[in-house]
Amino acid sequence: MNLLIMGLPGAGKGTQAAKIVEEFGVAHISTGDMFREAMSNQTDMGKLAKSYIDKGELVPDEVTNGIVKERLAKQDIAEKGFLLDGYPRTIEQAYALDETLKELNLTLDGVVNIDVDPSSLVERLSGRIINRKTGETFHKVFNPPVGDYDENDFYQREDDKPETVKRRLDVNIAQGQPILDHYSEKGLVNNVNGNQEIDIVFEDVKKVISGLK
C-alpha cells in the first residue's frame, strides 16, 4: 500500500500518520527523517543537501526530489509500501514524484486528506499560551490553566498569534490546493473529516485505506 497524507497545519496529520504506520506497517517517509538519514549516511544527495543547509540556504527542489527518490528505491518500500508525509509540498514536487514513481515502477494507491475548516484551525493553533515562570504550555480553549491565575503570567509566541497563524494557513492552502487538484484528477484523493475526535478520525482513515486494497 503506497499512500500520501495531506492536511493543513493543526489538522492532526502527524497524529494520523503515526497511527497509519502502526496499523498498516508501511514505511513512514517524512521530509525531516529523509534529510537526516541521507545526511547521516552521506549519500550523494545527502551531502548536497548538507552543503545548502550549512550555508543557511533552502534546499533546491531537485535535491529534495533526489533524496525522496533515494528513499523510495530502498528494498523495504517494495516489501512494506510507504506513507509519504510532508512531501510533495509544491505542485512541481508532485510532478517530480509522478516521474520518480514511474521510474521505480511504483504506484500511488491513494491520498488521504485530513480536511479541517481553516477558521477552526486558527482557533486551534492560536490558543497556545506559555507560563512565563514555569515554561508550561496550555491552550486557552482545549487545555486552559486551572485555579487562580493572572493573564499576565502567560505569553504567546509570535508564531502562535492569530494573524501569524492565518498567514501560515493561507500559504499552505495556496501551495496545497494545486497538489490536491492534481491528485483529484487522478481519482486518488480521499477526504476525511478532521473536525472529530482523534480516534473517530482514524476509524474513517482506516475505512478509506481498507477500501483501497
Q: What is the CATH superfamily of the domain at 2-117 and 179-211?
A: P-loop containing nucleotide triphosphate hydrolases
Structural class: alpha/beta
Helical residue percent? Answer: 40-55%
- Largest sheet: number of strands, sense, barrel closure: 5 strands, parallel
Number of strands: 8
Subunit structure: Monomer.
InterPro entries: Adenyl_kin_sub, Adenylat/UMP-CMP_kin, Adenylat_kinase_CS, ADK_active_lid_dom_sf, P-loop_NTPase
Family: Belongs to the adenylate kinase family.
Main location: cytoplasm
Could you characterize what this model shows?
- This protein is α/β, with parallel strands linked by helices and 213 residues long.
- The chain has a domain at 2-117 and 179-211: P-loop containing nucleotide triphosphate hydrolases (Rossmann fold).
- Helix content is 53%, strand content 16%.
- It is built from nine helices and eight strands.
- A five-stranded parallel β-sheet has the order 2-3-1-4-8, with helices on both faces. The chain has a three-stranded antiparallel β-sheet with strand order 6-5-7.
- Strand 5 (128-131) and strand 6 (137-139) form a beta hairpin.
- The protein is globular.
